[in-house]
Amino acid sequence: xxxxALLVCPASGKGRAxxxxxxxxxxxxxxxxxxxxxxxHDAEGTLAMAHEAVADGVDLLVVLGGDGAAHLGVQAxxxxxxxxxxxxxxxxxxxxxxxGSRSVEDVVHGTRRQLxxxxxxxxxxxxxxxxAGFDSAVNERANAMRWPAGPRRYDLAIVxxxxxxxxxxxxxxxxxxxxELDATLVAIGNTPNYGGGIPVCPGADANxxxxxVTVVEHGSRTMLMRMLPTLRTGKHTEHPAVxxxxxxxxxxxxxxxxxxxxxxxxxxxxxxxxxxxxxALTVVGR
Length: 286
What we know:
It is built from eight helices and 15 strands. The protein is α+β, with helices and mostly antiparallel strands. It folds into two domains: 3-109, Probable inorganic polyphosphate/atp-NAD kinase, domain 1 (Rossmann fold, 3-Layer(aba) Sandwich); 126-279, Tumour Suppressor Smad4 (Sandwich). Strands 5, 6, 7, 8, 9, 10, 11, 12, 13, 14 and 15 form an eleven-stranded antiparallel beta sheet that branches. It has a four-stranded parallel beta sheet with strand order 2-1-3-4. The longest helix has 17 residues, at 12-28. Pfam families: DAGK_cat, YegS_C. One of its GO terms (molecular function) is ATP binding. Residues 1-124 form the DAGKc domain. It comes from Lentzea waywayandensis.
């Protein structure tokens, strides 16, 4: 049977993960040969415990938390035989949705499969979307907000960031070509969604060995406000100011100090370079 570790991030979802820990462990135990329960109280502890569990040879690392905790779990299991399970208990839970896990039942009764990952030149992995520009500024603001929970936090952060909207010169280089343009935002998708279910790269597929890249060129606040509602449906890609393409490797430079975010986690200022690593992540889900 499977040797498993349950990594609990009690602060996720304003304490939701802590409240779910007992029932989650109870649901897992009948389906594994052993279960270690680990409780982490900060990002450093989460990452250290995840690496320790993988080094100890667990077959399955189950993260009980939000996208931030799941992102740290990815850093530990990427490129190994340890599978990642996610029991969502955070704000956005985009990675859990991509994996096909909406509850502990999806981990218990799910199947193993492999997904592609993105990797930055720094060595960091990401599973969902890397973004920079307007959307990373929204991430910065949303992460600092205490209210509200869920996707509404991102909606309010979007409205607030519109007040200081600025485009910037951006250079996008792929394995085949280079684009130079005045841009408002760029998103590199291994999977479609970020920000609690926003399909910024609606065609992205974590099994095709390619990123889907979405670039919004320069536009007025009025144009962006008209476009924003279409983000929730993925129809923004039909707008003439939006450019989309696919690539295995992408480098971003320029941006006038834009900060890159990956899986909703702050990375570094541009320039950044990323590449796809096919099949680097083993997951359990539906």
